[in-house]
């Protein structure tokens, strides 16, 4: 799951953003905030992947809030959601993942998730120790962690992708080839999205 928070001083905008984000099953909304300091306080004790921030806020604008948030979690991604276009340069100077004008649409949410997955560090196949895994083609694929405990797969495709990496260890295989092999029934955009989602799940396991 991608853990997100939303910050906007207008409750109706927060509700709209919540409804749009909730349509995607990969997103877990950890908190909705109308005050920047409340959002900053929350991030001090919670791991967050993406923060959706309005810019024009009372007491502290969204740009300053983003800096404070990045000081707490340097790898957090920032998405600015605002009614004004003239903050865009300042936003991207902060290395924002995206800059959206209100009201946002669901296809923009999908685009943001694709950007997020692409920015995640790539898995090195050799990190999955073949000594701790075994493959049976007429049974089940299992992977053991360092404690010799069997890893529980969140989805069948996560297990398939891990087995794929092990079977292709020390080989160069493109993302497009993986998508063709594991998601051959989907179009290019959908298979690419499924690949990034599954890769993210796998990275959280190993």
Walk me through what this model shows.
The protein has 8 helices and 7 strands; from the N terminus they run E-H-E-H-E-H-E-H-E-H-E-E-H-H-H. It has 206 residues and is an alpha/beta fold. Helix 2 packs parallel to helix 3, helix 5 crosses helix 8 and helix 7 crosses helix 8. About 8% of the residues have low confidence.
> Can you summarize the main beta sheet?
5 strands, parallel
- Major sheet: order of its strands? 2-1-3-4-5
Coarse morphology: elongated
Give the percentage of residues in beta strands: 15-25%
Quantity of strands, as a count: 7
Structural class: alpha/beta
The end-to-end distance, rounded to whole angstroms, is 15 Å
Number of H/I helices: 8
Unreliable runs, pLDDT <50, ≥5 residues?
123-139
Average pLDDT metric: 85
- The share of residues in helices is 40-55%
Elements, N to C (H/E): EHEHEHEHEHEEHHH
Structural Rg = 19 Å
Defining traits:
five-stranded parallel sheet, two-stranded antiparallel ribbon, alpha/beta, 206 residues, 8 helices
């Amino acid at each position: 799951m991608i853990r997100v928070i939303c910050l906007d001083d207008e409750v109706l905008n927060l509700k709209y953003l919540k409804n749009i984000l909730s349509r995607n099953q990969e997103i877990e909304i950890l908190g909705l905030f109308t005050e920047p300091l409340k959002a900053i306080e929350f991030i001090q004790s919670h791991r967050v992947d993406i923060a959706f921030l309005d810019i024009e806020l009372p007491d502290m604008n969204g740009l300053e809030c983003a800096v404070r948030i990045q000081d707490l979690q340097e790898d957090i991604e920032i998405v600015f959601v605002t009614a004004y276009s003239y903050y865009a340069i300042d936003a991207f100077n902060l290395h924002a993942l995206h800059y959206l004008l209100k009201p946002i649409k669901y296809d923009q949410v999908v685009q943001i998730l694709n950007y997020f997955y692409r920015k995640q560090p790539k898995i090195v196949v050799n990190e999955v120790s073949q000594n701790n895994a075994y493959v049976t083609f007429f049974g089940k694929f299992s992977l053991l962690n360092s404690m010799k405990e069997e890893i529980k797969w969140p989805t069948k495709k996560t297990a398939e992708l891990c087995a794929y990496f092990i079977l292709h260890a020390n080989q160069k295989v493109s993302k497009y080839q993986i998508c063709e092999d594991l998601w051959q029934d989907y179009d290019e955009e959908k298979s690419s999205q499924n690949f990034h989602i599954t890769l993210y799940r796998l990275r959280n396991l190993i």
